[in-house]
Amino acid sequence: MFVVFIISTLAMLKTNKPMEPINSDLLQFLNELKKNNNREWFADRKSIFDIHNREAKAFFAGVEERLKETDDIESHKLMRIYRDVRFSKDKTPYKARFAGSFKRATEHLRGGYFLNIEPGNTMVGGGFYGPNPADLLRIRKEFEMDATEINEIISDKKFKEIFPKGLEGDGVKTAPKGFSKDSEAIVLIRKKQFYAMRSFTDNEVLSKTFVDEVIDTFVTLRPFFNYMSEVLTTNLNGESIITE
């Protein structure tokens, strides 16, 4: 049924009016900003940044509208280009990228989509970057009890094609407290983060089909998000923990 959903969804997406592709000048500006990451250089080119910032906002808004046709999306957030350097060793004041996230709606839908447009480092994907302690424990216990479904999802041919690195994320070196190092799912249990990312070249980013590839990438994450949503909204007996 899910395969039918993907096919019908992508067919519908192709009928939409094409969005404006990413302008090569935008990537060029980010390249120059990376080489000249200081306030004086940026101030002299603030009007140019404003133009590209509007273009980025329009692109992210367009992605949200397209994504809403495949999922229940509450909102999107485009990150500010200004860095918070108060507690960072890196004192460069700007992020040489346009990055943002797309939030799924309601407590029932977990997982966040992510889009990072950056010369030489554009990435599309999403997942669970910082689960709170309760959610992390619930995920680990699910994997410990039965990791069959999650393994089927991340070993799916399309998932592996779109996300060749598989399920990524930092983890502990040994078994977390309360878990056996001999568990069949120990590789998953050790993780503290659970996400998948797809990389794009600059030429791919500038392509007219880039937005279609972004949506296809997000759609490929849906079985993973649906599975994790079910885990995080139920107890180990499969009973809902969401209070309406």
Automatic annotation (TrEMBL):
Coiled coil: none annotated. It comes from the Bacteria. InterPro entries: CHP02453, UCP028451. NCBIfam families: TIGR02453 family protein. PANTHER family: CHROMOSOME 12, WHOLE GENOME SHOTGUN SEQUENCE, DUF2461 DOMAIN-CONTAINING PROTEIN. This is DUF2461 domain-containing protein. It comes from Pseudofulvibacter geojedonensis. The lineage of its organism: Bacteria, Pseudomonadati, Bacteroidota, Flavobacteriia, Flavobacteriales.
